Amino acid sequence: MADFYINKKVRCRKPFTCCECHRQIIKGQHYIKHSGVWYGDFFSERMCEECDKIRDAVYFSNRKGGMDEEEAAVAFGELRYAVKELASEFEEFKQYEKHFIK
User: Which of 12, 38, 42, 58 is most buried (CB neighbours < 10 A)?
Assistant: First the structure.
């Protein structure tokens, strides 16, 4: 459970790597910075806009499937596995699998 959680769209000032697809976020691009405290531990992750969009789609699909908020959320670094699992069940998630192939 999160003690606090913030996500914010930021313009990249130096190169970073997306925590989900591991592509480089280059200077000048926008990315989403996720940070907060989870069970007493601080975290901060940087995610490209495409992965953030995919993460939202996975979350809302999980909620629609009956999961509660905490169950529906995907742990950082685990998005590719959640997409692969959903793509085996739902056609609309097959398009997202391509994003994780380097």
Answer: 58
